[in-house]
């Protein structure tokens, strides 16, 4: 019997959605969009806000930046091969940052949903409790 650690390691818990069409980009092609693993999502969250302290009467300056194109680049896959569309995330960001904000934002929201970031803690606990006795899926 595998240890709990091995069972967790082998669990396939990253959600994805197939059949995502973006006709404005590539008509007739279907993409797979995946959620992100915890480490990638946390790195994204931690990068959103940057605080800088200046020695002045103004005190602390805070800036917020969006990295939606980066998240989409890490989550957009060829549905047929499951390979990333953008194997170089920097190139993906460069390309996606010049595309429709509405499309990129829609894909970002899908990644956010697949990563379970659009649920509060109570919803996550209820879902975990509901599936607790189901065993491997």
Helix content: 40-55%
Sheet having the most strands: 3 strands, antiparallel
Q: What's the N-to-C terminus distance?
A: 17 Å
How many β-strands, per DSSP? 5
Order of helices and strands: HEEHEEHEHHH
What's the quick description here?
This protein is an alpha+beta fold. It has helices at 4-10, 38-47, 68-75, 89-96, 101-114, 121-130; strands at 16-21, 30-34, 49-53, 60-64, 76-78.
Could you please describe the fold and organization of this structure?
A hairpin with an 8-residue loop joins strand 1 and strand 2 (30-34). The protein has a three-stranded antiparallel sheet. The model has no long low-confidence stretch (mean pLDDT 85). The protein has a domain at 15-38 and 66-131. It has 137 residues and is an alpha+beta fold. Helix 3 (68-75) crosses helix 5. Helix content is 42%, strand content 18%. The longest helix is centred in the C-terminal third of the chain and has 14 residues, at 101-114.
Summarize this structure as a short list of keywords or feature phrases.
two-stranded antiparallel ribbon, 3-stranded antiparallel sheet, 5 strands, alpha+beta, 18% strand, 137 residues
Task: Please give the structural blueprint.
Elements: H1 4-10, E1 16-21, E2 30-34, H2 38-47, E3 49-53, E4 60-64, H3 68-75, E5 76-78, H4 89-96, H5 101-114, H6 121-130
Antiparallel strand pairs: 1-2, 2-5, 3-4
Helix pairs in contact: 3-4, 3-5
């Amino acid at each position: 019997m595998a240890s709990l650690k091995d069972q967790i390691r082998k669990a396939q818990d990253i959600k994805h959605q197939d059949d995502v069409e973006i006709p404005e980009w590539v008509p007739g092609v279907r993409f797979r969009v995946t959620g992100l693993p915890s480490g990638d999502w946390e790195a994204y969250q931690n990068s959103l806000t940057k605080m800088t302290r200046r020695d002045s009467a103004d005190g602390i300056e805070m800036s917020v930046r969006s990295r939606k194109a980066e998240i989409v680049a890490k989550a957009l896959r060829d549905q047929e091969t499951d390979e990333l569309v953008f194997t170089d995330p920097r190139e993906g960001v460069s390309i996606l940052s010049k595309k429709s904000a509405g499309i990129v934002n829609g894909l970002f929201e899908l990644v956010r949903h697949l990563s379970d970031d659009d649920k509060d803690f109570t919803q996550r606990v209820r879902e975990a409790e509901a599936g607790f006795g189901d065993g491997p899926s």
